[in-house]
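Chain A, query sequence.
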Amino acid sequence: MKDKRSIIDQRIKESKMQKTVLIKRLGLKRGNFYLKLNEPEISQKIIAEIGHVINWDFSKDFTEMKGFHYYYKDRLFVLGEPEEAYQRKHEYARFDELQQRIEKQDAQIESQNKIIAGMQKEMKHMATQQKVTNDTLKKLLKAMN
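Chain A, predicted structure.
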């Protein structure tokens, strides 16, 4: 059986993508790329990212990677599943998260509106008190004249 490094090299060759282009798209330096490939146990993340760039699903070669989740340029991908399926799942989860945020913000707004209403009521009361005080002062001044 071939080792992972040989299979990865084979798939890169089959893709006909130059390694320089691959390395650039991965956002790595050449030395770092080869360090990652020469590790005793190559990380599933780097394998998945290489596969993404060369358009190959490595779960076909490494069955233990089936269902492996990874992010590439802020998008979620899952090996061994059609992209639409996991993107939809991710979108539903994101929708639920946004819905919870909206509900939380609505509750905060409602709470703030109650505080504002109370402050407005207090200000009206204070304005009424001030008017009474002003009216009383006017009557006193009038009586003094």
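The helical segments are 4-15, 19-26, 30-37, 44-54, 83-144. Residues 83-144 form the longest helix (62 residues).
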